Amino acid sequence: MMTKKRLALLTVFMTFSYFVLLLLLPESVIGNRAESGLLFFFKIGFLGMTAAIVTAIILAVILKREFVKHQISTFSRFKYLLGLLVKRDFQSRYRKSVLGVLWSLLNPLLTMLVMTMVFSYMFKNEIENFPVYLLSGLVMFGFFNESTTSAMGSVVGGGAIIKKVYVPKYIFPISRVLSSLVNLFFSLLAFVLVAVVTRAPFHWTIFLIPIPIVYVFVFSLGMAMLLSSLVVFFRDLSYLYGIILTLWMYLTPLFYPVSAIPERLMPFYGLNPMYQFVDYFRNLALYGNIPGLWTNAVCAGFSLAALCVGTYTFMTKQDRYILYL
Questions:
Q1: H helix intervals, 64-129
Q2: What burial class does residue 161 get, using C-beta atoms within 10 Å of its C-beta: 0-12 exposed, 13-18 middle, 19+ buried?
Q3: Which tens digits make up the pLDDT trace of 285-308?
Q4: In whole angstroms, what is the distance from residue 223 CA to residue 152 CA?
Q5: Which member of 19, 78, 205, 287 has the lowest number of beta carbons within 10 Å of its beta carbon?
Q6: For the segment 268-285, what is each residue's pLDDT rounded down to a tens digit?
Q7: pTM across the whole model
Q8: Dihedral over alpha carbons 160, 166, 172, 175 (to 10 degrees)
Q9: Pick from 61, 56, 63, 55: nearest CA to 1
């Protein structure tokens, strides 16, 4: 029988195993070992731990088949509720406003306009077509910001329903992330509009942008599950998270060029998941480059690790939510 203690020991063993396997990969895949120094081994260790966590969760799912089947069956029975919640969240966002849904398109455009006026003079010689560069970062980070912030209080906000009838509690954070995904579609329309107006060069790789969107969606869903679970027990987290997001935004090159980051700090920026997702999006949409296998492995690792940790935390704590709502 796979107990939590045995699963933890197995995870430690797999972390070491993956670390060794990653070290054996050629430098063309993982980069120059000598240039990165100790930080290189930290990065490899982090990826090894991420892979081990994902593997451990997958093993737990395989060994808990009946539990997984029950959850799938429950989700199927309540998928209509998920659709209603997504529709409600989207409609309530712009209820009684004059422009209504058009604000989904105007919000990123107006934000870009303000930030362009503030920062374009500072970086006009370093960033070609600054409005498109800026909006490409705002689209990705804005989705993460909106989805996690709104999902964080979703379980607490759904307390009245949870107390009266049985519903799978994970429906609430999922509905908020899906609602934000609808808004992301309008933000992408704004991005295309700005690219056309500013005559940005067109690359066929722009049709591959669903790939980084999937990465950031899975990552945001995992973070939403984690945050919505923790905030039930620690309500102060909802206030602290705003500060964390502000710091996270400035640590992600949204409005300043990557070249402005000191070379010695670049490896640390590589440990920022949002930097990876934004850079992936820009490579496809702005520069016509297709990121390699290593970049995809890093992005997938961040996304799956967040989803596994968030889902595990949510599912193990959900029976206690009723006591704190």
A1: 65-77, 79-93, 102-123
A2: middle
A3: 888 888 887 788 888 888 988 888
A4: 9
A5: 287
A6: 777 889 999 999 999 998
A7: 0.84
A8: -120
A9: 63
